[in-house]
Specification:
Residues 68-82 have a biased composition (Basic residues). One of its GO terms (molecular function) is metal ion binding. By secondary structure, this protein is α+β, with helices and mostly antiparallel strands. Among the domains are: 132-352 and 428-448, Creatinase/methionine aminopeptidase superfamily (Creatine Amidinohydrolase, Alpha-Beta Complex); 356-419, Orthogonal Bundle (Arc Repressor Mutant, subunit A), CATH 1.10.10. Helix content is 29%, strand content 20%. It has twelve helices and 19 strands. Strands 1, 2, 9, 10, 11, 12, 18 and 19 form an eight-stranded antiparallel β-sheet that branches. A hairpin with a 2-residue loop joins β7 (287-290) and β8. α5 packs antiparallel against α6, α8 (249-265) packs antiparallel against α9 (272-283) and α10 (372-384) packs across α12 (404-412). It binds cobalt (II) ion.
Amino acid sequence: MAAKSPVGHSKTFDVKSSGKANGSAHGNGTAKSGAAEDSGEDSNDDADGHVVIEATATAVAGGEGGSKKKKKNKKKSKKKKAPTAQTDPPSVPISKLFPNDNYPKGEEVEYVDENRFRTTNEEKRHLDNINSDFLSDYRQAAETHRQVRQWAQKNIKPGQTLIEIANNIEDSVRRLVGHDGLSEGDALLAGMGFPTGLNLDDIAAHYSPNAGDKTVLRENNVIKVDIGVHVNGRIVDSAFTMAWDPMYDNLLAAVKDATNTGVREAGIDVRLGELGGYIQETMESYECEINGVTYPIKPIRNIAGHNIMPYSIHGTKSVPSVATNDVTKMEEGDVFAIETFGSTGNGRCYNEGDVSHYAMRTDAPKVDLRLSSAKSLLTAIKKNFGTIPFCRRYLDRIGQEKYLLGLNNLVKSGIVEDYPPLVDKKGSYSAQFEHTILLRPTVKEVISRGEDY
Ligand SMILES: [Co+2]
């Protein structure tokens, strides 16, 4: 989920467009999936575990997976074995696939230069070791993110509605963290870290379908899929872009490269404005030809990456995607969402369209609410989401009704913040890639890194 950043004080970064025009990445359509793939056609060999799993899969799919070959496996499972593979769609909790909180690590990148000492420093190692709960919560959320998104990359297809896509992703996340979020307080334990962003074409961020949304994904769309998963308030924020027409390949390649530049150059003591310069330089080295017109790829300068706090998606630091004079440093222990947006439009977004995303402010003022519907809604928000961002569909599914007046009242009172869709020039196209990184005392961990991106 993106942070809106103030515009105006950014310096121009003097980079020549070098037209790195033949990037190859059309990465998402062909993304490799890890565990999720194993539960399909090849499960005859270790039948015991898989019989159980297949049954679960069928139940979850509810007939939708009809195109899939069904095996007639008459062997019954004699004892319950721990499942070793994910189902399709995903339904096996990550805690069952990785017992004893032994979740896979993200990509660990050693610090360099004056921070090289951290790799072996005893004190830093100690600091790292006392953080084991933080790490296992983060890794569980990240593995959930990878498995769900890799399934989504294989299954999102033109012709589907955005509602269908969002529900499939969110139901999967909730199953994998083992919390459906329906009973009071359950969504605070683990679940969605923010509303699933499904942003088409010139919409860069913060679009999630509300009830009744009829939007259908088309073959010629560029869709940014922004998914948040949290475990005990540790939010993994990571996004990718999909397109079916290869004419968008360079747009996607530019943004993937720019985000990876940000991830690579990030580290303890790095100044945020300087980091923005590296991102900008990478992004602006690309161009993309769409329907016979060549566009320079511009970073969207008023949307930024951000640090992440427990139960709060936007901290106080922001990671620009252009050079700025912000001399704030990244620090030990910080968690950052490194996200960049590249656009064929103006490289600047404005608010447009129906709001879906909301979050209670961490610094919410104490206001004497007059409206009873606002009062009761606020109670429900506190109990179910706290300061974690939510959307209207999340209110619907916990049984809230006719809440719009109350919700708008909470926004006006400054208790809840709304996040309207962020849109660039009409008819433009934008792409987004995003990773969450942990600046651990000893090492940088790109917690959301996967084989897909
Ligand atoms: Co974000």
